[in-house]
Amino acid sequence: LESGMFVLARSILDKMPACDVAFLLESSPPGYRKVLWNLTDHDQHGEILEELNEDAKDGIINLMGTDNLVAATEGMETDGLAYVLRGIPDSVYRAVLEQMDTQDRQRVELALAYPEDTAGSIMNTDTTTVRPDVTIEVVLRYLRLKGSLPDTTDALYVVDTDNKLLGDVSLSTLLTEEPNSMIADVMNHDTEPLQALMEENEIAKLFERHDWISAPVIDSDRQLLGRITIDDIVDIIRENAEHSMMGMAGMDDDEDTFAPILPSAKRRTVWLSVNLMAAFIAASVSNMFEATLEQVATLAVLMTIVPSMGGIAGNQTLALVIRGIAVGHISSSNTRWLIGKEAAIGLLNGMIWAILVATAVVLWKGDLQVGYIIAGAMFINLSIAGIAGVCIPLLMHKYKIDPALAGGMALTTVTDVIGLFSFLGMATLVLRH
Amino acid sequence: LESGMFVLARSILDKMPACDVAFLLESSPPGYRKVLWNLTDHDQHGEILEELNEDAKDGIINLMGTDNLVAATEGMETDGLAYVLRGIPDSVYRAVLEQMDTQDRQRVELALAYPEDTAGSIMNTDTTTVRPDVTIEVVLRYLRLKGSLPDTTDALYVVDTDNKLLGDVSLSTLLTEEPNSMIADVMNHDTEPLQALMEENEIAKLFERHDWISAPVIDSDRQLLGRITIDDIVDIIRENAEHSMMGMAGMDDDEDTFAPILPSAKRRTVWLSVNLMAAFIAASVSNMFEATLEQVATLAVLMTIVPSMGGIAGNQTLALVIRGIAVGHISSSNTRWLIGKEAAIGLLNGMIWAILVATAVVLWKGDLQVGYIIAGAMFINLSIAGIAGVCIPLLMHKYKIDPALAGGMALTTVTDVIGLFSFLGMATLVLRH
Questions:
Q1: Smallest CA–CA separation between B109 and chain A, in Å?
Q2: Phi/psi at A224 (nearest 5 deg)?
Q3: Does the residue B251 lie in any domain?
Q4: B286 and B336 housed in the same domain
Q5: CATH number at residue A143
Q6: Which among B184, B188, B181 has a CA at the least distance from the CA of B215?
Q7: What residues contact A106, with CB distance under 8 A and at least 6 apart?
Q8: Where does A119-229 have alpha helices with state H?
Q9: How do the pLDDT tens digits run along chain A, 433 residues long?
Q10: Would an 8 Å CB–CB cutoff place B430 in contact with chain A?
Q11: Is residue A217 domain-shared with residue A289, that is, in the same domain?
Q12: B23 and chain A in contact, CB less than 8 A
């Protein structure tokens, strides 16, 4: 591509499926992205947009004119359309809607009316429904007339004349049961439908636990609205897990690896500011003991060890608890057990590392007193780090603060303050006597 | 349950699907787990084991006698059976195999012969195959005779007389095409089969990119061996993302939230030891400047700020790059661009934070000289942190070291050493003049 072989590149891109083009776009720095996008087939634009991550999608839409966007969105499925149009500027959004036909517009407005991240906003409206009082033979004839089924269809939904969901009948059942059986007799009555306002994280947990391929979405009247398919759920599951990982490093999970420099630097500022405050809090703890530090410079050399070990021990517990909260394993019934367990591990680790570190320090510095001090501080800090590692995320979760985002910083501040305070405080006490 | 209402609990458990019982077991501390397990229905044991995470599964198997384990594994599907039997002690494994019938034993031995985490080890052998030279009508009659299809079947595989894969035909096609069409005319010839030795991470990426529900597994002769279904892939995707998050905190992603105290403490020791070494490396850097620290105790108070900011900035970049490597967006073609981008962000952030921190320190300590020193050190450390945040994980990935595991510790050591060295080094130079 760098050598300007555009014609060749275009013919290669034309042959690629949309998902691969999207992957290629996501893997390219902004400059290349623009060139690549202009080389792609216009007919594929809609599909490619749908497959891109949020940041990359918004970047590309900014490059497109409204006309092109309207052309690209033609014939797209509701969930994809809602995804593409969410977050674009209001003026462009209105222009796109105006140029759509009525049916498409209604579908999109329906989906966008539901809050982001609920079943209503990620569902697809392409359900295939049947009545309970017909035979399989009739359904088969209807399907052959229809000629095709939407992607990822594993079941047809059985509804009454009011479009209320009665259950579902899987494609397997249609193929394996006798043609003269009634749908009512072979259908699955235990379908667990999703409420339109259900949160996507809850939905993902249900899909994962029950190994669903698709699930129907209903409104409060049990009327069938649409369906959610596993391919959307896979994205949600990965995003959630990434959210924990990126969040712990103070990054937004939507952050595009190849985002331009200025927006990237700006987004990272928040986290660096928070850390600066935490660092100054820790520094002000040391500041309380400036007189002691002046007397014994060795203390300054050693004072970073205890906070560092406390931070690591606390973060191990924190990661465990954040994952436990995310997958739903931790509830009020087992928190007390968990706090007890992590406190016990903290005490045990505290004892082990107090002895090890003290020995190392005495061997290095030849000062028995400093050994006692660092042992005491290490024991205190590791014991508290374990408890803080459980309690901080649980309290945050209770007060609706995301522990993946704020937990690590809060924890490190606690272990830094306690580590420095116990080490320098004990040193001050020992020096006075 | 605590009040001893075992009969009630048993009847509730009996009515729960296996996946919910497994979730309940995973959410329980070890003591309760044992009680709960003994209350569950024996017929469900196999299904429950299959749904448990590795740590919890191995714990429960230790509670079961060999006879019970054999009984539980009866009638299980190959992939579940392979999962349950992997990692159990050799003597138990042989005893279980001996009590199986020949066909089951062969299936399990086949699956366990493939290395863990390859297509062969996670595949299921319950494929339904058809020949290309028959009509849909014939297939429909065959399916009705069969009476049912395995779970998550979205397509039948078309094979020749040698069991070599020719393509697939989806259930949708069987339902919507005319009964007198030949399979050869309606089948999909572009099926992308998975090689038995393909790695599960690669497979997960393919499933995610192509929105597959299931995919056939073949050997090097194109002979059909089995199939992999989306429900297993969902687990892999979540585990991979969790691996990055837990790994960055120095935890094993298999770690059970409710694991007993001693094994937990033991597992965390490795990471704390590594950190202790890192902390001592940082301390030995400060130690080089003990004379300077003795002269100006304020330096000791402020010396933790620069390493802390460097660590945070570096970790932001690291998280971005680790995710980029995990999803496959980063390759040799775009690393140079990425290093350039992160270096630029580092320089920009370095300038901003150098000015801010220096101002804060001058206001606090009223010492202009210390302000200059901390500004210089901050600029150096943040600039290098950005570059280190890209280069460390990329180098580790090149040399097959997992950056999610070792990256954070290596990075923090680098930013600590450079932060302390630049801050204390410059202070020493300034003091001499």
A1: 26
A2: -70, 125
A3: no
A4: yes
A5: 3.10.580.10
A6: B188
A7: none
A8: 119-122, 136-146, 171-176, 183-186, 200-210
A9: 555 566 777 777 777 888 888 888 888 887 778 888 888 887 788 888 888 887 788 888 877 877 788 778 777 777 777 788 777 777 777 777 777 777 777 777 777 888 888 898 888 888 899 999 999 999 999 999 988 888 889 999 999 998 999 999 999 999 999 999 999 999 998 888 999 999 988 899 889 888 899 999 999 899 998 999 998 888 888 887 788 778 877 787 777 777 777 888 888 888 888 888 888 888 888 888 888 888 888 889 899 999 999 999 999 999 889 888 887 788 877 888 889 889 999 999 999 999 999 999 999 888 889 999 999 999 999 999 999 999 999 999 988 888 888 888 899 999 999 999 999 999 999 888 7
A10: no
A11: no
A12: yes
DSSP A155: E
Nearest by CB to residue A272, choosing from B178, B300, B313, is B313
Q: Which residues pair with B58 in a beta bridge?
A: none
Are both A277 and A419 inside the same structural domain?
yes
Cβ A290–B280 below 8 Å, yes or no? no
Residue among B388, B396, B354 at smallest CA distance from B372? B354
Residue count of chain B, please give it: 433
**CA–CA min distance B254, chain A (Å):** 10
Domain stop point among A177, A212, A229 = A229
The answer to whether the Cβ–Cβ distance between B276 and A152 falls below 8 Å is no
User: Could you tell me which of A257, A338, A274, A353 has the C-alpha nearest to residue A306?
Assistant: A353
Same domain as B148, residue B105:
no
Using only the alpha carbons of chain B, give its radius of gyration.
Answer: 29
- Domain contains A207: yes
Does residue B249 form part of some domain?
Answer: no
Residue among A117, A118, A143 at smallest CA distance from A218 = A118
Q: Tokens for A368, please give them.
A: 């028995």
- Among A79, A113, A147, residue at a domain's last position: A113
Domain check: are B272 and B344 in the same one?
A: yes
Handedness of CA B44, B46, B52, B57 (dihedral sign): positive
Contact A216, A203 (CB under 8 A): no
Q: Is A191 on the interface with B (CB under 8 A)?
A: no
- The token pair that represents B50 in the structure block: 């299959």
Residues A157 and A286 in one domain: no
Tokens of A202: 């809850």
| Same-domain status, A325 and A202 | no
Q: Which of residues 104-123 of A touch B (CB under 8 A)?
A: none
* Contact: B341, A261; criterion CB under 8 Å: yes
Q: Under a CB-based contact definition with an 8 Å cutoff, are residues B282 and A300 in contact?
A: no
Q: Is the ipTM of this complex over 0.90?
A: no
Are β-strands B165-170 and B194-195 bridged in parallel, bridged antiparallel, or unpaired?
Answer: unpaired
Only one residue has tokens 């706090």, namely: A339
Chain A residues touching B294 at Cβ < 8 A: 294, 297
CA distance B208 to A22: 13
Please name the residues in contact with A91: beta carbons below 8 A apart, sequence gap of 6 or more.
none
* CA–CA dist B315, B411 (Å, integer): 7
Report CA-CA distances (Å) from A426 to A302, A377, A414, A418, A432: 13, 8, 18, 12, 10
CATH number of the domain that A36 lies in? 1.25.60.10
Task: Give yes or no: residues A178 and A89 share one domain.
Answer: no
Long-range contacts of residues B291-296, Cβ cutoff 8 Å, at least 24 apart:
B291/A297, B291/B428, B292/B424, B292/B427, B292/B428, B292/B431, B293/A293, B293/A297, B293/A300, B293/A301, B293/B424, B294/A294, B294/A297, B295/B431, B296/B370, B296/B427, B296/B431
User: Would an 8 Å CB–CB cutoff place B269 in contact with chain A?
Assistant: yes
In CATH, what number is assigned to the domain containing residue A375? 1.10.357.20
Range of the domain at B39: 6-113
Please check whether residue A417 is in contact with residue A282, taking contact to mean a CB–CB distance below 8 angstroms.
Answer: yes
* Lookup: tokens for B165: 């894969």
Is residue B120 situated within a structural domain?
A: no
Work out how many domains chain A is built from and give that number.
Answer: 3
